[in-house]
Amino acid sequence: MKEVLNKRLEKLKAHYKALKDYHDFIIKLGNIYEPFEFSALSLEERAVLEAYLKRFSSVQDYLGAKIFPLLLDVKGIPYKKMSEVLSLMEKEEIINLEEWIEFRNVRNELEHDYPDEIKQALEDLKFCVENFEKIEEIIKKVFEYVS
After folding, report:
1. Which of 86, 92, 55, 56 is nearest to 69 (CA)?
2. pTM above 0.85, yes or no
3. What are the distances in angstroms from CA 54 to CA 11, 31, 50, 64, 109?
4. Which residues, 6+ apart, have CB-to-CB distance to 66 below 8 Å?
5. Whole-angstrom Cα distance, residue 26 to residue 15?
């Protein structure tokens, strides 16, 4: 089980590095959250924004589905449902449950809603960019927890 966790943590590092690279690139673009500014971006810059949103969602999915349950398994902490996993992750001070639920809601919106208006899409992007540090902190806590 520890070997599986180590492989998953290596994959998490790769996800994080890509997310951080995209984030750093987006920050350099400046205020891109208004339709006029967004429309002035190149096709390549827009592709980075889309990649960032996908990676942000993927990192959160990966943490919740592949990392958190395995952390508990390795530590011998029993659970039955995902709600218990998240509650235990909060108890172990890895996540703030309210923030995690907000991330999930935005992730679900990104995955399942296709906003007709660019304004809503840019608000979702802004949320993800502004909350990068929170996801980054969760990742750091995961690595601290296993060391």
Report:
1. 86
2. yes
3. 16, 20, 6, 15, 12
4. 8
5. 17
Containing domain of residue 20, as a range?
A: 2-146
CATH of the domain at 131: 1.20.120
Distance CA 92, CA 57 (A): 23
Rounded (5°) CA angle 53-142-129:
25
pLDDT tens, 77-106?
999 999 999 999 999 999 999 999 999 888
Report pLDDT for 112.
62
Q: How many CB atoms lie within 10 A of CB 83?
A: 10
For the record, the structure tokens of 36 come out as 């006029």
Q: How far, in Å, CA of 144 to CA of 79, rounded?
A: 21
Q: What is the 3-state secondary structure (H, E, C) of the chain?
A: CHHHHHHHHHHHHHHHHHHHHHHHHHHHHCCCCCHHHHHCCCHHHHHHHHHHHHHHHHHHHHHHHHHHHHHHHHHCCCCCCHHHHHHHHHHCCCCCHHHHHHHHHHHHHHHHCCCCCHHHHHHHHHHHHHCHHHHHHHHHHHHHHHC
Query: How many domains does the chain fold into?
Result: 1
